[in-house]
Design goal:
- By secondary structure, this protein is an alpha/beta fold.
- It has helices at 30-37, 55-61, 92-108, 117-125, 151-154, 168-173, 233-249, and strands at residues 6-9, 12-17, 20-27, 42-45, 64-67, 112-115, 130-131, 159-163, 179-181, 188-189, 196-202, 207-212, 219-222.
- The chain is 27% helix and 23% strand.
- A 9-stranded mixed sheet has the order 4-1-5-6-13-12-11-8-9, with helices on both faces. Strands 2-3 form a two-stranded antiparallel sheet.
- A hairpin with a 6-residue loop joins strand 12 and strand 13.
Length: 252
């Protein structure tokens, strides 16, 4: 049996305590790593030190990259946006680390799967912008999670999205039929980035999935949280496709 695929999992740099915000800790939810472990992959939490991240050393170790969701938002400076109370919380260390890893993964043909914040990072990385409060934008529906702490309700699938025929998402699902997904986000795509394909849209036209055209390996971002619905057929298909691409990237 060959080596397990090693998949870098983005971490967030968070203040350890509100009284000592200068002391950061790197964190990632177990729920993001479990689907990788379930597919015999080895999750590699990224040592996120912003611009000081040892990018090349990390790239020698990983076969793919999972960009996780987060409570934090992409810094508006990344897309020439206005910063206000609506922008917070921010994580500039993560922004810098993500940009450095995306440069290398795309150039080196390593798969990328991006979830929620990660999806927004892909859009901004390619020159797109974000609406910081989607539910306040005229013509948009409310994409925030249901007001419940019951996991089956908060993370349950309730929103239907249309899948672009022939795209990366349709290929992973082996179908371009509409799918029902969860939705838990405040921010969303405003201007779509350059050189990307829109892979899915919500009923109000909001972009829900995209891929980067110049990527030679699997590269898909989704606005929802498939890791929160690990047994859902859509989630299963997406994680299967991503891990299989990582196996291919390391040469089987």
């Amino acid at each position: 049996m060959g080596r397990r695929p090693v998949i870098g999992v983005m971490t967030c740099a968070r203040p350890k305590h509100e009284k000592t915000p200068e002391y950061l800790e790197l964190a990632v939810g177990q729920k993001y790593m479990q689907p990788l472990l379930d597919r015999a992959a080895l999750p590699f939490p990224i040592p996120n030190f912003g611009d000081q991240t040892p990018f090349d050393a990390i790239m020698e170790q990983i076969d793919g990259l999972l960009l996780t969701g987060s409570l934090s938002n992409v810094h508006p400076d990344r897309y020439d946006g206005d910063i206000s109370a609506k922008s917070y919380p921010l994580d500039p260390h993560r922004d810098a680390c993500t940009w450095g890893l995306l440069d290398r993964c795309i150039d080196q043909g390593k798969p990328v799967f991006a979830l929620c914040r990660g999806f927004q990072e892909l859009n901004v990385y390619t020159g797109g912008s974000l609406d910081q409060m989607v539910h306040e934008v005229p013509g948009r529906i409310d994409h925030r999670s249901p007001t419940s702490h019951v996991p089956e309700i908060k993370y349950g699938a309730w929103q239907s999205v249309d899948v672009t025929p022939g795209g990366t998402l349709a290929q992973a699902l082996d179908s371009d039929a509409p799918i029902v997904i969860n939705s838990l986000h405040l921010q969303g795509v405003d201007r779509v980035g350059q050189g990307v394909t829109v892979e899915a849209t919500a009923s109000d036209g909001l972009v829900e999935a995209l891929s980067i055209d110049r990527a030679t390996a699997f590269c898909l971002g989704v606005q929802w949280h498939p890791e929160a619905l690990p047994e859902n057929p859509v989630s299963v298909a997406l994680f299967d496709a991503f891990v299989a691409a990582c196996v291919d990237a390391r040469g089987g």
